[in-house]
Write a structure and sequence with these properties.
Layout (H helix, E strand, L loop, with lengths): L4 E3 L2 E3 L8 E6 L4 E7 L27 H4 L8 E6 L3 E4 L13 H4 L10 E10 L4 E10 L2 E2 L5 E3 L2 E12 L4 E12 L12 E13 L4 E13 L2 H9 L19 E13 L5 E10 L16 E12 L6 E14 L5 E14 L4 E9 L5 E2 L9 E2 L3 E9 L6 E12 L4 E13 L4 E22 L8 E23 L2 E22 L11 E3 L8 E18 L2 E15 L7 H10 L3 E8 L6
Antiparallel strand pairs: 1-2, 3-4, 4-7, 5-6, 7-8, 8-11, 9-10, 11-12, 12-13, 13-14, 14-15, 15-16, 16-17, 17-18, 18-19, 19-20, 20-23, 21-22, 23-24, 24-25, 25-26, 26-27, 27-28, 28-29, 28-30, 30-31, 31-32
Length: 599
């Protein structure tokens, strides 16, 4: 591995070499043991570049083969906000091998950016009586920063899952348990939780000739640590107990115990109608982010989805669907935070092209954003709306173009945005295929959170917002070439540039005022609100050779370039691409060989 880092006024390129071992063994025709020692997980596509300015953690899909295999057995759904975007739950495997959590406090430019997985193993499969079982355990090593101070402690992760099918597969009941144990020292225990446990029961029952489904789950969580660590948990973006309209913060607590409930009824077949109604609730103390994923606690949500599905071809179309959605969110105490609706429709024409269109409305009624001020008071949300349209070519053809665009308005007309997203998929020959895509967006957000100044537990804190004018361009390329059925090459590359300029710096005045302008007053204590320029390039090249049936060699080259500064607020394609590709790269070259033994 080659890592580029500063060494005085020059650049150093330290090299490192590691070795690992993967093992897969079939205990029976249905039960498999997977084990790995110091895994590299290198032969996967890089994550897309993202600039996250929200109050919530960014979710990234799992891409590492070890964790993706048999992932359905470990599925336990907790948070499902949108039927189109999937669910998150008690096991988010990206927590294992994560970026060190104390990197920004005790690390420097030469510190590790990921945590070494010393070893991991799992047993998964399905027994003949319909019982699915999964057991996973992983140990990650301690990573050190400046003066050998731990930036991520040695940690043990455990996941256990069981699900029993009933009634010939039309019903099932299940249970799941997870635990996390960290080996903390005196400098890390004020910041990280020492132990975390989650557990839950879930059930599903199909009825009405298998067209209808009732599902429910009950989940609990316990996290423990020092008073300082639990205080930080109470004040993070998932909980925000320090909010002046929450009054939940207790600096002496060393444990948080929470619960969650979810129930849904759905229709997935029969006739032309489909629907799903979901209610889910998270108590304020619910915390699963040591090994799961939860964007926020202290929330109730009720969502309805209704679809008209026309799957029989006629003179105008091959098939079509029309979706109608409505959703409402509240805090656990009942304060309304979201009320909105959506329509989206999709039609495949007789020539096999697709037409897509939709629109959203949010901020209906009197609703408040209790996360907007990052621990401050809830802010009244103004009505907003957006619409989008897309056209998609016939994917059976050698070249299939796609074009999406959309626009929206919000903040009582003070904010607006639009984007255009063209792409093309091509199959030049049976050996060569790929896709090229771009996305350009311009966003004006009139109430983007900027910073808080002062003691977060006092009533003198300044919660500031500003107008943000942001331009973003991303390009994505995927290429696949097959030399022979056993030798393939895959290339992924994405440059990403986003610039933003802040203006009209304000602080909260009367955050719940019905009149938009009355919610803020001018803020002049810190001068110019500034801006940003964020640039990133990620690429991954994988050569795969199956030299024997079931035995594979991978040669992987990953490259990353990045730059972030507070100059050049306005987007300039020529300047930005020169500086992005002029930045020093981080290169990783990896060789992995697997050998399949079938005794």
């Amino acid at each position: 591995q080659n890592v580029t880092q500063r060494s005085g006024n020059a650049w150093a390129h330290p090299q490192s070499t590691t070795a690992g071992l993967d093992l897969k063994y079939g205990l029976s025709s249905n039960i498999t043991v997977d084990a790995t020692i110091n895994p590299d997980f290198g032969q996967v596509e890089a994550d897309p570049a993202v600039l996250n300015l929200s109050a919530f953690e960014q979710f990234f899909s799992e891409r590492r083969p070890f964790f993706m295999e048999g992932t359905g057995i470990f599925d336990y759904r907790v948070q499902c906000d949108d039927i189109d975007t999937g669910c998150t739950g008690l096991f988010y495997s990206r927590r294992i091998g994560r970026s060190p959590q104390l990197l920004g406090r005790y690390g420097d430019d030469g510190s590790p950016t990921s945590t070494t997985i010393l070893g991991a193993g799992k047993v998964s499969g399905r027994l003949g009586n319909g019982l699915s079982v999964g057991l996973l355990e992983a140990v990650t090593g301690e990573e050190s920063g400046v003066d050998r101070q731990a930036i991520e402690p040695r940690t043990n992760y455990l996941v256990a899952r069981a699900r029993q099918e009933l009634n010939g597969g039309s019903s099932d009941v299940g249970a799941m348990f997870t635990s996390v144990h960290r080996g903390l020292d005196d400098l890390s225990d004020p910041f990280l939780r020492r132990t975390a446990y989650t557990g839950g029961l879930d059930m599903r029952h199909r009825f009405g000739s298998g067209n209808y489904e009732l599902a429910a789950s009950l989940t609990g969580s316990v996290v423990q640590g020092t008073a300082e660590a639990i205080a930080r948990t109470q004040m993070d973006g998932v909980h925000n107990f320090q909010r002046p309209d929450a009054y939940r913060f207790d600096p002496n607590r060393t444990r948080l115990t929470g619960d969650a409930q979810r129930i849904s009824i759905s229709k997935f077949g029969g006739g032309i109608t489909r629907f799903q109604s979901v209610y889910q609730r998270f108590s304020p103390d619910f915390e699963i982010n040591d090994l799961g994923f939860l964007a926020r606690a202290d929330e109730q949500m009720f969502r309805n989805w209704f679809q008209l599905a026309f799957n029989r071809p006629n003179r105008f179309q091959q098939r079509a669907s029309h979706n109608f959605n409505a959703w409402a969110h509240w805090t656990a105490d009942g304060m309304p935070t979201v009320l909105g609706g959506n329509y989206n429709g999709h039609m495949q024409l007789q020539n096999f092209w697709w037409l897509h269109a939709g629109g959203n409305m949010n901020g209906l009624g009197r609703v408040y954003d209790d996360r907007a001020s990052r621990g401050g008071p809830a802010v009244r949300v103004s009505r907003g709306m957006n619409a989008w349209f897309g056209i998609e070519g016939d994917t059976r053809k050698r070249i299939a173009p796609t074009l999406f665009f959309g626009a929206g308005r919000g903040d009582d007309g003070h904010g607006h945005d639009w984007y255009v997203e063209p792409s093309v998929r091509f199959r030049v020959a049976s050996r060569f295929s790929g896709s090229l895509g771009a996305r350009w967006s311009e966003v004006t957000n009139d109430n983007q959170w900027r910073a808080n100044f002062g003691d977060p537990l006092s009533d003198t804190t300044h919660h500031t917002f500003a107008r943000l004018d942001q331009q973003t361009l991303s390009l994505t390329a995927r290429l696949n070439y097959t030399f022979t059925p056993d030798l393939t090459l895959q290339v992924y590359a994405q440059p990403f540039v986003s610039t933003g300029e802040y203006s009209n710096w304000r602080e909260l005045d009367d955050p719940r005022a019905s009149n938009y302008a009355d919610r803020y007053r001018s803020f002049t204590q810190q001068g110019d609100p500034g801006g940003f320029r964020f640039m990133q390039f990620r690429s991954n090249t994988v050569l795969r050779w199956e030299y024997m049936p079931g035995s594979t060699l991978y040669l992987v080259w990953s490259q990353g370039r990045g730059r972030q500064d507070e100059d050049g607020y306005q987007f300039d394609f020529g300047r930005d691409q020169r500086e992005l590709f002029g930045a020093h790269p981080d290169n990783t070259v990896l060789l992995k060989v697997s050998y399949w033994m079938n005794p």
